[in-house]
Amino acid sequence: MRSRALGDLEILVVRLSSDHPSPATLEALLRLVEAGALQILDVVVARRRTTNGFDLTEVDAAQFALAGLPLRVPGLLGSDDVRHVTRSVPLQTWVALVLVEIAWVPRLRRDLLGTPDTLTEVRRIPAAVANAAWTQARRATAPRS
Q1: What is the spatial distance between Cα 83 and Cα 11, in angstroms, rounded to a whole number?
Q2: What's the predicted TM-score (pTM) here?
Q3: Is the pLDDT of residue 58 over 50?
Q4: By the 8 A CB rule, do 46 and 95 touch?
């Protein structure tokens, strides 16, 4: 178990081609873990079976650890998380829910200890909002003919 409190968490939803993550997906996650960008807390695989029903499979934590992807808090994701996420998934589609802690945030907080500055929060801006603002800003600064 962990010796410190959890930081902000995110659930990554990865659409799968079968009932388990592909080697390419595992390798991509491993690169992020090795780079110190994130820690994987838990992973489950789910399939949206019906409009209101789903199948849920816990991944084998030992197999993930052997692949260099130790699950820091296995069992943290549950059926409520899967029910919420799979509402937007097409029927009969497999997805992996990967619960991650963004590792650089606690590191930055620690690095700022003893300085006059403090990281007070991190706000996430959804990609759709960021891209819309960027497009609007480009239009506003574009030369007019």
Answers
A1: 13
A2: 0.78
A3: yes
A4: yes
